[in-house]
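User:
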Amino acid sequence: MQPNDARILRGAAIVAAPVGVVATVVSALVAGEKGLIGGLVAVAVVAVFFGLGSYALMRITEDKPQVAMAAGMLVYAVQILMIGVFIVAFNNTTAFNARAFGLTLLVTALSWVGGQVKQSLTARMLYVDPVPSVPPAE
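Assistant: Predicted structure:
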């Protein structure tokens, strides 16, 4: 993992974590114990799906930066699809409050993506490789 990639991942988590905590606390205050459980499950889902997706994207583009846009769109589509599958699978659950889960998931996911965007825009990324990885042809 390149240093810029690690900074982007860390920056997204730093933005999403407090938002997830606040949303979980609000869920607990509004919906009680089931709201707390729903909020915690939502934060865990965002952390797992978006964290693993970001890590996968970094691994894919590590040695092939030319596929970054296509890989990014594919990873994002898979993340949203997997979250949708999770929501459908637990649609009628009584283990947690579905509304608290959904709202916490929404605000935490949006804050994660916002953190990624902010870190990507402010990161100083080299456009030229200072040390060529392939020796020059002789």
